Amino acid sequence: MTGADEFTIIRDLMAPLAHHPGARRLADDGAILAASSGMELAVTKDMMIEGVHFLADDPAELVARKLLRTNLSDLAAMGAQPCAYLLGFASDGRRERTWLEDFAGGLAHDQEVYGISLLGGDTVAAEGGLLTLSITAFGEVPAGISCARERAREGDVVAVTGTIGDAALGLLVSTGALRGLGNAVETRLVSRYRLPQPRVSSGVALRGVVHGAIDISDGLLADASHLATASGVAMELAVEAIPYSEAATQAIRRDPALRDRALSGGDDYELLVTLAPGDVPRARSIARRCGTPLTAIGRCRKGSGVTLLDVQGSPVGIVDAGWRHSVLAAGPFDNGPLKSRA
Predict the structure, then answer these.
(1) How far is residue 40's CA from residue 33's CA, in Å, rounded to a whole number?
(2) HSE value, Cβ hemisphere, 13 Å, CA-based, for 200
């Protein structure tokens, strides 16, 4: 961080975000956080690195909001109501105070939107390194009814909130790999890439109704595989049932090869859930009240793996099934094309 020391940044920019009583205005090196009566704490942690999860010229405010929202999406998949978070900030030594002010402003904006507070964290500077950010987020969920990946059951319907693929296509637009769609379509796609919409209200409202749940960060097919593996079931997904936005539909219509990218590219931050067939109408009504559609896209079967089926029920091949992580001897681009999540 240039032009400002750690304690000045904490005092001026971070302490105003720490309104949770347990944060003690960041006067201590720790915080106190207790669950409400009858509730359990849900905890999640995500990291973002420049050049891997966001672009170098992405606005600081949107980087901050994306960082927070990706964590809130994980809490949503657990059916947890967000309450507080810890921030890790490893600067590359090139950030001016104005960038940091915009970053803190982005956090402040979404704290208001989601009713969450900073508890504390740590800041370091690594000259010549990569800007690395992390959040550990806390939420509350009634004891014993949190959603979990291992709870999908044979015979369950597989359903997804919202639409799939906008963010993956938005990354292509942002990097110049996808052009000619028109300003309105490209703006829509880029906005979904830069600013996820975590389904917090849907996740909270659907707990006790859905069985298994996961947020879609690595791509629909990859996260369906994670959910199926954790639950010991197979999933069959109908390719024609998968919901796309009008913007994504236009892009795929123009270039059908983009369908694979939409299904595997990740960063949707929608919820993929399983539930009993008889509960689908109720779940759809709940999701609709929360402002997002819920679309049935498949079934859980006996077996393992995920199969994509066409309208005749035949398997559909796909080039890339989704994002995979490598942590051994890997640089920021060693996992393939720039992705927006690790």
Answers:
(1) 11
(2) 22
Tokens of 335: 């996992």
CA-derived radius of gyration, the chain: 20
Ramachandran sector of residue 156 (left: φ over 0; alpha: ψ -120 to 50; beta: rest)? beta
* pLDDT above 60: residue 103: yes
Q: Please, which pLDDT band fits residue 2 given cuts at 50, 70 and 90?
A: low
In the numeric block, the tokens 């803190």 are attached to: 104
Residues counted in the chain: 342
Beta bridge partners of 160: 272, 295
Task: From 141, 290, 300, 285, select the one nearest 212 (Cα to Cα).
Answer: 300
DSSP states of 73-107: HHHHHTTPEEEEEEEEEEE-S---HHHHHHHHHHH
Number of other residues whose CB lies within 10 A of the CB of residue 288: 12
Spatial separation of the C-alpha atoms in residues 308 and 310, rounded to whole Å: 7
246 burial (CB, 10 Å; 0-12 / 13-18 / 19+) is: exposed
The mean pLDDT value for 267-273 works out to 97
CB count in 10 Å sphere of residue 342 = 18
CA gap 49, 282 in Å, rounded: 40
β-sheet with 132-142: strand ranges across: 39-49, 132-142, 81-91, 117-125
pTM of the model: 0.84
- Mean pLDDT over 40-59 rounds to 89
> Strand 117-125 to strand 81-91: parallel, antiparallel, or no bridges (unpaired)?
parallel
For 151-182, the DSSP string reads G--TTPEEEEES-SSHHHHHHHHHTTSS--S-
